[in-house]
Write a structure and sequence with these properties.
Elements: H1 2-20, H2 30-37, E1 44-48, E2 52-57, E3 63-68, E4 72-77, E5 84-88, E6 92-96, E7 103-108, E8 115-122, E9 129-137, E10 150-158, E11 168-173, E12 185-187, E13 193-198, E14 201-206, E15 213-214, E16 224-229, E17 235-241, E18 252-258, E19 268-271, E20 297-301, E21 304-313, E22 316-322, E23 330-331, H3 347-354, H4 358-367, H5 374-398, H6 402-406
Antiparallel strand pairs: 1-2, 1-23, 2-3, 4-5, 5-6, 6-7, 8-9, 9-10, 10-11, 12-13, 13-14, 14-15, 16-17, 17-18, 18-19, 20-21, 21-22
Helix pairs in contact: 2-3, 3-4, 4-5
Length: 440
């Protein structure tokens, strides 16, 4: 009898333990949430129309006016993204804090007769070697013909420590060092693969037990000079030189390879349309760079600035995000993940909003409506309403149908952008010096 009681008691304890420690049902959105959280969400792009400097979030399309100044010819971010430098036609350099909107004059470089500001390179923070201004003799022809430059110079500037002192200037003749260093082999972020160009194909060498094999299904274009892994190690960007035309001395194309699984031979291939430029054609030293998450590129076409998303999302692979810029647009470096407005079950909804997938965010928000407090739900709905309004204004400004910018099924070919662009009441730019918007 004693042993029977012990067995019954053990069984009851085991049952209670099983009930108490039962594994909750798996959250199907957990994997999607982890994928989104691994992405730097504030993909900010600096542009100018010549009279003001703007910064646009490429995913939400929110825009802020950072500087009102006539004759802005070039913009450049510091390597860590803390400073944005704007160079005017007369050589005056203004440093801008992109977050606070505060500005300060760095220096004014002296230009020779017939010299123009061509571009700028961010070197560091404002109190060190800050920016290099690229100047040359020539003139800007009518688009899309590239200008021909003579006697280029690189003028590096360091701000004066004391107000009465002069800024430190260092001048070198010629273009900057060539940034297009061939990179025909690259190790994936997961360190499990090493891709290498071998003749007309790319071989993927598995490491630490991973498989190996050829990942290209067709021959590579000629002139490949760079490989760039995406941050999820599931894709590879191949940058190659394109045929020169319209007086341009440098042009680049992009082919993206993505692993579609299923044991198929090779990876899916997608080519960037030839109408989109990755490089300024008059600057043979410049190399195209992806955004910091290596999942996006930035391009320019006649209608404006284009966000290139090789992994198809709700807008397709191409999204028009800004009107044409008078200076070559620059992507803000650095990783800036979003803080949470409410956290908890609504985190996925927040992240979908901040990546611009407003339809999916609305659907996800409806699922968690009863799981979060009413004030938190109101905050999220207000944020979503603001982003929907911004998207509507951008569609009107760029001449693109709203469903093309918000569709979860992909973006059809955009309608032609009317030129020249006129500012209207639908313009959503915030005034100069405005504080950084409260962001999830």
């Amino acid at each position: 009898m004693k042993y029977i009681c012990l067995l019954v008691a053990s069984a009851m304890v085991g049952a209670l333990g099983t009930f108490a420690w039962a594994v909750p049902p798996a959250d199907k959105s957990a994997g999607r949430l982890r994928t989104l959280e691994a992405t730097p969400y504030r993909l900010e792009v600096a542009t100018t129309d010549g009279g003001k400097v703007l910064i646009t979030d490429a995913l939400t399309l929110e825009r802020r006016r950072l500087l009102d100044k006539a004759g802005v010819a070039a913009v450049a971010f510091s390597p860590n993204g803390e400073w944005l430098y704007a160079v005017a036609n007369d050589g005056e350099i203004t440093a801008i804090n992109p977050d606070s909107g505060k500005t300060a004059v760095v220096a004014k470089v002296q230009l020779k007769a017939n010299e123009l500001v061509v571009d700028a390179i961010g070197l560091g923070p404002i109190d060190q070697w800050a920016v290099a201004v690229i100047v040359a003799q020539g003139q800007f022809p009518a688009a899309p013909v590239c200008p021909t430059w003579r006697s280029p110079r690189r003028i590096a500037v360091r701000r004066a420590i004391a107000a009465k002192e002069a800024a430190t200037i260092e001048i070198k003749d010629g273009w900057p060092d060539d940034q297009r260093t061939p990179r025909l082999a690259a190790i994936s972020p997961s360190t499990r693969y090493r891709a290498q160009v071998i003749g007309p194909v790319i071989q993927n060498e598995g490491r630490f037990g991973a498989g190996s094999g050829q990942i290209t299904r067709t021959a590579l274009p000629t002139g490949v000079f760079a490989l760039q892994w995406m941050h999820d190690s599931g894709g590879l960007g191949v940058v190659f030189a394109k045929r020169l035309e319209r007086g341009c001395t440098a042009r680049a194309g992009l082919r993206v390879l993505r692993d579609d699984g299923g044991g198929k031979v090779g990876w899916n291939e997608w080519n960037l349309p030839d109408t989109i430029e990755l490089l300024r054609g008059d600057q043979p030293w410049l190399a195209p760079l992806p955004t910091d998450d290596a999942m996006h590129w930035l391009g320019v076409e006649a209608r404006g600035v284009v966000l290139i998303e090789p992994v198809p999302r709700f807008r397709g692979r191409l999204a028009l995000i800004a009107p044409p810029s008078q200076a070559w647009p620059k992507v803000r470096p650095g990783t800036r993940p979003q803080a949470s407005l409410v956290g908890g079950p609504a985190r996925l909804s927040e992240l979908l909003m901040e990546t611009g997938d407003l339809d999916a965010a609305e659907d996800e928000l409806a699922k968690v409506a009863g799981k979060i407090a009413a004030p938190a739900l109101a905050k999220l709905k207000a944020r979503l309403a603001k982003l929907v309004d911004v998207r509507s204004r951008r569609a009107a400004e760029l001449g693109v149908a709203l469903d093309e910018m918000r569709s979860k099924k992909g973006q059809p070919p955009p309608k032609p952008l009317p030129l020249p662009i006129q500012e209207t009441a639908t313009d959503a730019m915030e005034p100069a010096g405005a504080p950084t918007p409260v962001r999830p």
